[in-house]
Each structure stands twice: as C-alpha cells, then as structure tokens.
Amino acid sequence: MAASKESYVDRTVPKISLADFDNRIDAIASDIADAAEKVGFFSIVDHGIAATDVDQMFADSESFFALPSEVKTSVPWNAQNVGYEFKSQVRPSTGAADQKESYQLQFGENMRDLWIDDKDIYGFRSRSLAFMYQVQTVSEKLMVCLARALKFQDNFFVHWHDSSKPNSQSTLRLLHYFATPETDDGQVYHRAGAHADWVGVAFSNDCAHMADQPQGFLTLLFQRPGQSGLEICPGREVVTDFGHGDAWTKVDFTASTDIVCNIGDLLMSWSDDRFKSTFHRVKAPCEKGDNFGERYSIAYGCPKRRQLWYNSTNHAFASFFNQPRKDALIQGPKKKYPLVTGGEFTANAMKMYYAASKAATESHDQSKATPNLSSRVVAATA
C-alpha cells in the first residue's frame, strides 16, 4: 500500500486516576473537565475494573467472532443497535466496506432473543452483563464529574443513563478488525474512519481512511496493547462545524486496563461547546510499523435518554436512546444555541448527513475522472 502523506504530531492524552474517588472528586472533576476542554480525549486508570475481567471480556469477544458465520448471523443487528453485523458500513466515497465485524450488547429488552446461546459460548451472557455493569459504574463516576464541571446537580447525567430501565440503550460494542495485506493488492481497505462521536467529515487518502461522526454522549474504549490504530485530530471548536486540525496523533495503550474516554457530539452541544468532540479514527494500516494483523477492541457508549429536556433549568424522564424525542427541548446551560426540539435537532443532523454523503459521492465520481485530485474530501457514514 502507498505511504500516508498526512502529518503527525505528538500530543499528550491526559491520564487520570480515579483512585480514592469520593475524597478526590473535585480534583478528578477538574482534571476531566480540563481534558474535555483541551483534547476531548483522556484515559483513566485506577477505575476498579480488574485486568482479569477485561481479559475475560476480550477472550469472550474472540470466542464469539471465531464462531461459524451461521451462528453469528443467528443474532442479527437491528435498528435498536443490538446484534451482530459484518462489513455493514460502506464508505460512500469509495463504495468499499469497513474491514470489521461487531456485536452490540445492551442491558434491556432490546436484547431479547439476540444473546448468543450458552451452547455456543457457555456463560457469555452472564459474564458480559457483569462486565457491562462494571463499566456503567465507572461511566457514572465520570458523569458526576462532568455534571459538576457544568454546574449541574451531581446526578443530572446519571439520571438519564439508568441501566436498570428495561429499554436502556447504553451499548457495549465488541469489535473485530480483520487483518489486511502488507503489500498493495489493488484493493481498498477501511477500518474505522475519522469520526467525532451523528454526521461527519471524512478523509480519503492513500491509506483509505474514512470518517463518520455519530451522535453520542461519552464513549469508553478498551484496546489490546500492541494492536495499534487509534488516532485523534483535535481542532474542532463548535458542534455545528466539522473543523479539525491538520495533524493526527497516535494513541497508544500501555495496559489493557487503560480506558480511553472521548466526548461525543451530544455532550459537546450540552456543554455549549466547552467540551470538545474530537475527530478520531482507526487507521487502515498502510506503512511500516502499522498493525496489519487482527485488532480487537471493546467500546461502551453512553447515549442519552429519549425523553429529555436538556438545559440548565428543566429536568426529564424516560429511556435511553441515540437521538432526542421529537418534543424534547434542547439547549445548553449558557444557552449558546437557540432552543430547538428533539425533532429539529435530529432533522438538522440528518440534513448534514445527507449533504455530506452527497458530497462524498460527487467527490468520488470526480476523483475517478481526475485520478490525481487532492485527497481531502467530505464524507459520512451511519
């Protein structure tokens, strides 16, 4: 494969200890807020999840993806964002699918009939749920810190992420990226494009990195040391724009218990752009030193509830979901943006999605007619 022409720069991704949380909460909240403002990414340690539990979850993930295709497809993905999917994300700028498969797990009723059977992997459901509850507990600590930084009540965000609700939609996503050839075989390969966690900007270059930007609140990521690929590109200033910097930074994991956390678009908007939803990607390997082998990762996403008033004075009730209810009133604590309903918020996001997708298709058509066209284009995926 051709070498990347992109530039890289070293940046510090803050590492924050959650040790002695109750006694250090103000200091921890200050550190998290600082990282959320400046980078949009940070890693946490001393969070209470044992290395053995992380290793077991990775082992169960690998066992699942090693199952025959007919077994995995017996729990197919659906619109509730649960179940198994295989090479399902296709980049509009190239028509090529991401080289990955995934299995989305949730706590509540959406998982009915979508858990892999014990006869295929004994104890998978019980171990997965136990791990998910541990990650949810860590997530709630972060939510308290974020709420405190924004001058909300401590339980403000926790209230909207109650995993005990039957229709909770916080999601644990098991990911398996396929190995790719180290020599150029004429094919285009993608892993996961540059996205800032609903619609997005993407890049198409010699390494075929593409991007999307799904809406989200907060994501926690587990990765195996040595299975590199995660990169970030800060520089986005407002949630309504796709601005970003010019240089990427590789994010390395030193231990499987390190959890990398990133701010999503929803939280960026909720904070009136104080916290940054930073573009990031899993780079398709294309140069010496890249990881051409398999890559496994585990991501835990915290979307908001469906029925939601999200401003500084109103409170809400109901269930988790990836987009606001149509009658939700959306506005940050400082009211930076005009008040919009959930329906308007979603409609605006979809307009951006389709505009970006159309631009990607047009850019792809033009690049085929002009092979030496500049590599930067706009694109989006779901």
Assigned CATH architecture: Sandwich
| Total strands | 16
User: Helix coverage percent of residues?
Assistant: 25-40%
**Unreliable parts:** 190-215, 304-326, 369-382
**Derived structural class:** alpha+beta
Which homologous superfamily in CATH is the superfamily? B-lactam Antibiotic, Isopenicillin N Synthase, Chain
Whole-number mean pLDDT: 74
| Helix segment tally | 7
Strand content: 15-25%
At the third CATH level, what is the topology name?
A: Jelly Rolls
Give me the side-by-side strand order of the main sheet: 2-3-11-8-13-6-5-4
Q: Any idea how many domains?
A: 1
Order of helices and strands: EEHEHHEEHHEEEEEEHEEEEEH
Cα-atom Rg, whole angstroms? 20 Å
Major sheet: 8 strands, mixed
Would you state the CATH class? Answer: Mainly Beta
**First and last CA, distance:** 27 Å
Task: Describe the structure in your own words.
Belongs to the iron/ascorbate-dependent oxidoreductase family. This is Fe2OG dioxygenase domain-containing protein. It comes from Recurvomyces mirabilis. Keywords: Iron, Metal-binding, Oxidoreductase. With 382 residues, this protein is of the alpha+beta class. The chain has one domain: Jelly Rolls. Helix content is 26%, strand content 18%. It is built from 7 helices and 16 strands. The longest helix is centred in the C-terminal third of the chain and has 28 residues. It is globular, with a radius of gyration of 20 Å.
